[in-house]
Amino acid sequence: MKLLAIDVGKGTEDVFYWDSSQGVSFENAIQLILPSSASEMSFKLRRAARTNNEIYIRGEIMGGEPWHKTLYELVEDGLSIYATPNAAMSLRYDLSLVKKRGVKITSEEFIVKRTRKNPHAEIQTSDVNWDRLEQLFHSMDISFSEIDAVLVCAQDHGLPPSPETSVKEFRTKMHAEIIRETKTMSALLFDSNSIPKEFPRLTSNLEGIRRRFGNNVSTYVMDSSLAVLSGAFLDPTVSVSDWNLIINFGNGHTIVGMFSPGGRIAGILETHTHLIRKNLGLFRSQLKNFLDQEMQNERILESGGHGCVYFEEFFPPQTIWIIGPNRSLAKNLGFEYSFAHPIGNMMMSGPLGMLRLAFPEYFGSPE
């Protein structure tokens, strides 16, 4: 089996490739930390704006708020920006709000026609920079056509049923509904048959994989924050038989997961990492209340976070595990903790978390 797993983050695109036929350990597999597509978008927009009065955007739904600001600044400066509905949903799922900010929503055919003679005015949206990755793999004599399974994780806030529904609250609500059925991480890994329609970005990633690799490849997607929690268990010192609290300090989101023996999810709390930077004391208090099973969902929402949900009563964790690119934030929390290092590389937690769930025969039993 030739397996490709990618964690699309706010700042980085973390890639793990493993070929079971080569007989190499996971530690010796190909591991890449690349700049994320989102981090490159602002540069692409400004470069196109230097030589064009109009910019045309098409492709898949992708994330990355930093480039949103750049795009709207260019519109305010008088630049005309056209986008297909799918690409425009990268800005907001509610396209009426995107139109209000001055972006012109148009068809794929219109953009193809307008950019035929001026391809430099076109920008493609995609969570994964597939062209760059294919070139890198080609330089290592690896063909995309030989890959058996592709897994991508990214953060999807979800599409609420009505504009009145809070996007922040809806994300946690959707995850909670899925978790309540089984309390397992496996239920959060989606293929084309199981992906909820309320997750447009993850659905778009599935479609993008199919377009790039064809229909014969196995495809999976997952929310990246949750995938990282799963990946922590591939550190051999993180015992699935214990009560474990895992905190993932990501670049955009921070998620706290309590796991009972057997790897069942007992509770989750999710907030934004920038809020922790502004007020570490508040997060310290929230974490203490979470461990005391007294944290209220409304309090997290009021503070700007996504929410808090309990699925079962739990005992104090035997270990608090810290993971994520901003794990240094844990040093002043006032709790004893240990760092989780799946296969010795914390940045591979997202890709490994998906592989652990999709291919337990290679990566160990998920629960």
List the helices and strands and how they pair.
Elements: E1 2-8, E2 12-19, E3 30-35, H1 37-51, E4 54-59, H2 65-76, E5 80-83, H3 85-88, H4 95-100, E6 104-105, H5 108-114, E7 122-125, H6 130-139, E8 149-154, H7 167-182, E9 189-190, H8 200-213, E10 218-223, H9 224-231, E11 244-249, E12 253-259, E13 265-272, H10 273-278, H11 280-291, H12 297-302, E14 307-310, E15 319-323, E16 338-339, H13 349-358, H14 360-363
Parallel strand pairs: 1-8, 4-5, 4-7, 5-6, 8-10, 11-15, 15-16
Antiparallel strand pairs: 1-2, 2-3, 9-10, 11-12, 12-13, 13-14
Helix pairs in contact: 1-2, 9-13
Care to give the gist of this entry?
With 367 residues, this protein is of the alpha/beta class. The protein has 14 helices and 16 strands.
Q: How many helices? A: 14
Mean pLDDT: 94
What CATH calls the topology of the domain at 236-340 is Nucleotidyltransferase, domain 5
**Full CATH superfamily name of the domain at 236-340:** ATPase, nucleotide binding domain
- Poorly predicted runs are none
**CATH architecture classification of the domain at 236-340:** 2-Layer Sandwich
Head-to-tail CA distance between termini: 22 Å
Using only C-alpha atoms, the radius of gyration works out to 21 Å
Structural class category: alpha/beta
Placed side by side, the strands forming the largest sheet appear as 3-2-1-8-10-9
- Could you name the CATH class of the domain at 236-340? Alpha Beta
Main sheet overview: 6 strands, mixed
Binned strand content: 15-25%
**Strands, total number:** 16
Shape: globular
What series of H and E elements makes up the topology? EEEHEHEHHEHEHEHEHEHEEEHHHEEEHH
Q: Tell me roughly what share of residues is in helical segments.
A: 25-40%
